[in-house]
Amino acid sequence: MRTIFLKSGLLLAVLAPLTACDQPGNIGVGPPPADAISGAYGIDTLTVRLSTIWRDSVPTSGTNFLLVGQYRDPRLGLVAATGYTRLGWSGPYTPAPTEIFDSLALELRLNAYRYGDTTRLQTLHVRRLAAPLTVGRTYFSGEAVATDPVLLNQGAAALASFRASPSRRVLRLRLADALGRALLLAGQQGRLGTEAELAAVLPGLALTPGPTDDAALLLLPLAGARLRLFTHAPTAPTAAHERSFGMENATAHFYQVTANRRGTLLASLSATNRAIPSSITNREACLAGALGLQLRLEIPYLTRLRALAPRPLILGAEATLETVPGTGGRGLRPPAALYAYRSGRGGQRGAVLTTGDGRPLPLNYLAGSLNRAGLETGRYQLPLASYCQAVLDRQLPNDGLLLGAAIPQLPEQVTVGGEGHPAVPLRFRVYLVR
Q1: Which residue ranges make up each domain of the chain?
Q2: Element holding 392 (H helix, E strand)
Q3: Do 40 and 34 touch, CB atoms closer than 8 A?
Q4: To bridge 294 with a disulfide, which of 62, 225, 373, 404 should be the other Cys (CB 3.0-4.6 Å)?
Q5: Per DSSP, what are the bridge partners of residue 52?
Q6: CA of 342: how far to CAs of 123, 136, 308, 413, in Å?
Q7: Which run of H or E residues covers position 109?
Q8: pLDDT, tens digit, for every residue of 31-65?
Q9: CA angle 386–47–268, rounded 5-degree value
Q10: Overall pTM surpassing 0.70 (yes/no)
């Protein structure tokens, strides 16, 4: 016999009649014992299921930054981010016909955000876009656009590896002289009078990680990022002239985030809305914001609670998802908060769960707690009373819930234990009266 205290202080004597060991949905012979005073039941052995579902890619063209970098994860595979952007326009460029080219450099800003291992070396490659991005179009993290295969990085310094330490806030890369001379010539010929003319000469830039990188994803704000063209007059060779093409006012940009899952337990996730149950992924499930991976939680036998009463009243219900120990290393932080959504039968996303004032209900990450096995883990706690009551009242189909990152444009990931995990099993408790 198991004893559970409610927040009100009532003591409930509870057996375990609702287990996966019973025949599906079998509650047993008669209802579980209820508290003699309140008549309430507390059940924490009702079957719950957790899956990893590939919902869809997320829009990334509405951000004010780009993500670039690459790291390898044993569960997600090789995760890579590539940034694409047009150049911003600040007015016509009309250099003197005698102006002489000096150099072309790309200057990028880094903020404090890093995702991955910043102690490892990584590189940043620059290529030109084959065609300009479409202004006003929404681009998603699963998309890619064609680029010129030739690298624009020029010189050993521009191709050198670096560590993205927290103190590094600027990256400067020298780019191909041929591109710089082409921009100068276009300006001297009067072909850089509009943004469209600039896009005809240089459609945009793609920022990609090195093919063998295994380090971190970097957040590059568009504010302060610029392409710097340096020239001089023949009569004053030491007096540099500069024209900057900033990215803060770029009319189109986005970033792609992909995962090569070959060789991982998630390798069969090849189509959106496809789910893999945690029962075949080592009793674990994975969530990753920018990759579009979410969690699907189902309580398949919830409606069997009607066997206790025609219309049971839910006093409280909660699921606890704990992070798998050892999965948050190398700077791979979990999302600070999740949102829960109603799920369709095929995994389609429905309405978000909200607070009393209609705002999305955040499921905040709770760090540094000791679980029942004595392991220090983080956790998310999902209130389910309203969902359970609506299902039992036949107001909602029992299709479960989807959990996704509150800020899906960020790459944060988390691995949690599913049903039957030996260290951090998914837990669910429901309290009701007949």
Answers
A1: 2-56+265-433, 65-251
A2: helix 385-392
A3: yes
A4: 404
A5: 276, 295
A6: 41, 30, 25, 21
A7: strand 100-109
A8: 455 554 556 889 998 999 999 999 989 999 999 99
A9: 100
A10: yes
